[in-house]
């Protein structure tokens, strides 16, 4: 079964926030994405609300509950008490925990699982008691012993950070090396019963190779590259292109144009 596609709405929200106006509509674009076949929506509400605002969360939750109950809501963030309260209030299907400093522009590294075990384990248990699936953001190249500790937290999945792979858009040899790291870590994670998600700098050009190398890939969360493509192709067509890429097939137009856009 192909990986599911969750559309990250942060880039849409950042465009909206450039003006004190309600467009582009985060929920309006989210609706278009779900109507086109996306399997869910992702947001990363940061403490300064520089893109997704806290006030967006109930609207996105209502959109999914009222019109697309078969799809999922994924909230990413650093598990501060304020973030956990926000999550508990809006009950996403999945929470992706990231080790970000609040000032970071974007997620750029995974958890050091061994040294984070005592911190993460009670957080994971707290979320799972509410029936929320928990995914932990992970570096692309993680030793087996570290993944065993990730499983010890009680998490259901890891999300592989694909930024280093996406950064090799102009160097196929380096991309192949980074892809192999992702594949090996995914296989080790699966051996511990962890599901595998992926996200960051994925595009219609580089996603098919990831989907092929990691056949059990459960979900990809994509924002920047998908939004960039939507400026040219529209959101509905862009979602359809990324869904095709999730099957390991590169859309013809992207291949011929040599797209190298980032995402996530």
What does this 3D model show about the protein?
The structure is a single chain. By secondary structure, this protein is α/β, with parallel strands linked by helices. It has 12 helices and 8 strands. It has a single domain, classed as Alpha-Beta Barrel (TIM Barrel). An 8-stranded parallel beta barrel has the order 1-2-3-4-5-6-7-8, surrounded by 6 helices. The chain starts with a strand and ends in a 7-residue tail after the last helix.
Per DSSP, the total helix count is 12
> Roughly how many Å apart are the termini?
22 Å
At CATH level 2, the architecture is: Alpha-Beta Barrel
Kindly report the average pLDDT value.
93
Q: Find the CATH superfamily.
A: Aldolase class I
Number of domains: 1
Spans with pLDDT under 50 lasting ≥5 residues? 254-264
Might you state the CATH topology name?
Answer: TIM Barrel
Tell me the radius of gyration: 17 Å
Strand order of the largest sheet: 1-2-3-4-5-6-7-8
